[in-house]
Amino acid sequence: MNILSLFDGISMAKMAFDHAEIPVDRYLASEIHPSSIRMSEELYPEIEHIGDVTHVSKFTMDFNFFHPDIIIGGSPCQDFSLARARAGLAGSKSRLFYQYLRILEEVKPKFFILENVVMKKKWETALSEHLKLSPVLLNSSLVSAQNRPRLYWVGHLHNGKYEKVHIEQPFDKKIAISDICEDLPYTRKFTVETPKYRPSGIIPLGKDYTIPWNNSREVLSVFGKAKTVTCDHGELYGNKIAEGSLYRCLTPFENCRLQTIDDNISELLIRQSYAECISQVGNGFTVDIIAHILRQL
How does pLDDT run across 75-121, given as a tens digit for each residue? Predict the structure, then answer.
C-alpha cells in the first residue's frame, strides 16, 4: 500500500499503520519543520520526504512510479480550536486545509483520512461541504488515558466520488493515567486559592503550585483521564497529577504514552528538548485511534 501523509510531523501515521499491521510499500511525507523531519528520518529511514505541502502535486510525485492508495493528514487546527481566536478557514494556519483539498482532488486516492479538532458548527459544516461527507467524532479516551475528542473525515472513492466510510466507535479500554505513569516521586505541594485572592491566571511554577480558586481541577487524579496533550504543553500548562497534597507534572515519556506511542519510539523522542518532544507529540495523532480507523477501510 502506498501512503501520502500531509502535515506528517514525526510520521505518527506510519506508527498507526504498524499498529494496524498494514504493510506499507512506499510512504511519502510532506512536512516543513526541520526537527520533525529529522526525527521522522531517524525513526523511519525508508520514508521519502517531499517538502512543503503547497508544492506537492501529482507531478512532484511522478505518477508513473507512485500513486497513493491513502492520503492522510491533520491540517493545522489553531484557527478552528475553541480555545483560540477561531479565525476559521481565513486563518493563516487552518486555511492550509485547502492544500489538502487541492491534493485530494488532484490525486484521487482510494481512501482519505482528515483529522481536526472539534470546532464551531459552521466551520465543521464548511469542511464537510468541501469534502462532501460528514465526520465522525472519536475521543482518544477510549483507547488511551487522555481526553482528546477529534473529528475524522474518512472517505472511499467510488465511481469517481468519495463516499463516507462508517467508522465504529472503539472499544473502551478503560485506561487511566495510573496505567501510563512512571514510578516517580511527587515532590511539590499545591494549594487552592480562596475567593479572597484570585490570581490573574495560573502562577508560574516554582517549587510549589497555586491554583486559581475556580479551577481546582487543574491538578488531576491518577485514576482519571489526562487533558489533551497539545503542542504548547510546557510545565505551566501541562498535565499535573496529585498524590494527597503533593503533585508532579507528567513527563515527556508519559505524554508519549498518552498518544499511544510505543515505548521504544518514545525513548528516542525524549532525547530531544522538552519543548521539541511535547510539540511533536501534541501536534500528532493518537496512534491507536488512527490504527482503529485503518482497520475498517
Answer: 876 556 655 556 666 555 677 899 999 999 999 999 999 999 998 89
- CA angle at 48 for the pair 33 and 283, rounded to the nearest 5°: 35
Phi-psi group of 201: left, alpha or beta (phi > 0 → left; psi -120 to 50 → alpha; rest → beta): left
Of the listed 77, 249, 256, 277, which one is catalytic?
77
Is 181 tagged catalytic?
no
Q: Does domain 2-171+286-294 have CATH number 3.40.605.10?
A: no
d(CA 88, CA 94): 6
**d(C-alpha 134, C-alpha 227), whole Å:** 26
Instruction: Give 138's Cβ-side CA count (13 Å radius).
Output: 28
φ, ψ of residue 91 in degrees (nearest 5): -70, 155
Instruction: Specify the length of the chain in residues.
Output: 297
pLDDT tops 90 at residue 195: no
CB 88 within 8 A of CB 79: yes
CATH 3.40.50.150 in the chain, residues?
A: 2-171+286-294
Question: Does residue 103 sit in helix, strand or coil?
Answer: helix
Q: What percent of the chain has pLDDT over 70?
A: 81
Q: DSSP label at 226?
A: B
Alpha helices in the chain (DSSP H): 12-19, 34-43, 58-61, 97-107, 121-131, 252-258, 263-269, 274-282, 287-294
For 218, phi and psi rounded to 5 degrees? -60, -35
The residue type of 76 is P
Stated pTM of the model: 0.89
The DSSP secondary structure of 18-67, one letter per residue, reads HHTT---SEEEEE---HHHHHHHHHH-TTPEE---GGG--HHHHTTTT--
CA 260/CA 236 separation, integer angstroms: 23
pLDDT tens per residue, range 225-244: 998 988 765 555 678 888 87
